[in-house]
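Entry type: protein chain
Record version: 2
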Amino acid sequence: MLLHCGMEVSAGHLIVNDFDTLHQRSEADFHYGSMSLPLEDFDAAAEAIAGHELPTSALKHLVRPSPALMSRLLELHKMVGQIAETMPGLLPIPGQFGP
């Protein structure tokens, strides 16, 4: 189980926030994935993942995409993880190794 800013997060939920500071608490041996997006890319990605636009007050919301969209997101996450492991130079982190 994960608590995010006092809200219980279940499998299949996405956390959406833009807080500078947040509090999370989990049980032992808890695994999850995360990603950060530039603000200009967030709206398009959120609509593609959630299947609809997110409310502008989504600073402290949990989003539950449809099972089909969540499955697609998890598959993409798995593939990107495999690429990062087997070909680390293919996905450079901007600013990490020079301009």
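Comment: The helical segments are 39-50, 67-86.
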